[in-house]
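Consider the tokenized backbone below.
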């Protein structure tokens, strides 16, 4: 669906590889398949786990129980870790300074909050796996399994730190100025602020041309810029049309608070 939406908006196919966006030099887009990426990692990791435990058979140690536990933990990875794993790849790009700015379009409220809370949960999960593997360190057989776990834990920790660094990361909230949606947006902004993630701006989508600005402010976003994105039909397609549409957005005056 998102790939189709990308094609609809940009009038070019966007897949799971970085591609240059037509008409904007230096701009690249990617529709990351988080589930597929994590599944590839999990499959490769499971194979290494099996090889690791197989290597212990020469020591006449019964590791069948631990093997089952490790496999169960792999199968029962916390929901959302696939998205976190994909986000880790984005964090790598930030660390490598391959791009001046990286923009992530995440899933809606519930999924976004889960993603922001995920680093701590995922670290606990990786630590459980690592504790099992470390039980066999005296046999000198950690090999690639321990290195993989340490690398994954490091990347997860780096993502968590990046998300909470207001010098590098901020959130732009897009919402509708409707009572139920405003309530949901209030919950989101409060929860995000409590997690230590900065809010850069709130964009009220599908605003009526010339209508009064939304009621202000959302408490947790009181210092954020607020804009109204005017509704237009048909929806803009292509970079030029999106640029013209963005030129019709208007700032919500602070005096409206």
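A designed sequence for it:
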């Amino acid at each position: 669906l998102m790939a189709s939406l990308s094609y609809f908006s940009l009038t070019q196919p966007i897949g799971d590889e970085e591609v240059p966006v037509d008409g904007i030099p230096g701009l690249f887009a990617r529709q990351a398949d988080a589930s597929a990426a994590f599944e590839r990692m999990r499959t490769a990791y499971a194979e290494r786990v099996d090889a690791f435990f197989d290597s212990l058979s020469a020591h006449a140690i019964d590791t069948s129980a631990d093997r089952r536990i490790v496999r169960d933990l792999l199968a029962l990875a916390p929901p959302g870790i696939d998205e976190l794993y994909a986000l880790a790849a984005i964090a790598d790009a930030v660390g490598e300074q391959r791009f001046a700015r990286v923009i992530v379009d995440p899933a809606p409220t519930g999924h976004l909050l889960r993603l922001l809370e995920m680093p701590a949960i995922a670290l606990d999960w990786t630590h459980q796996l690592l504790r099992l593997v470390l039980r066999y360190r005296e046999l000198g057989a950690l090999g690639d399994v321990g290195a993989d776990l340490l690398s994954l834990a490091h990347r997860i920790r780096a993502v968590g730190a990046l998300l909470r660094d207001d010098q590098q990361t901020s959130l732009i909230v897009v919402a509708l100025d409707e009572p139920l949606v405003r309530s949901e947006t209030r919950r989101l902004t409060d929860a995000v602020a409590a997690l230590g993630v900065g809010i850069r701006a709130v964009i009220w989508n599908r605003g009526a041309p010339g209508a009064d600005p939304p009621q202000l402010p959302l408490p947790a976003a009181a210092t954020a810029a607020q804009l109204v994105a005017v509704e237009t039909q048909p929806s803009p397609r292509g970079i030029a049309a999106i640029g013209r549409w963005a030129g019709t957005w208007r700032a919500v005056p602070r005096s409206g608070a």
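Confidence is low (pLDDT under 50) at residues 1-5.
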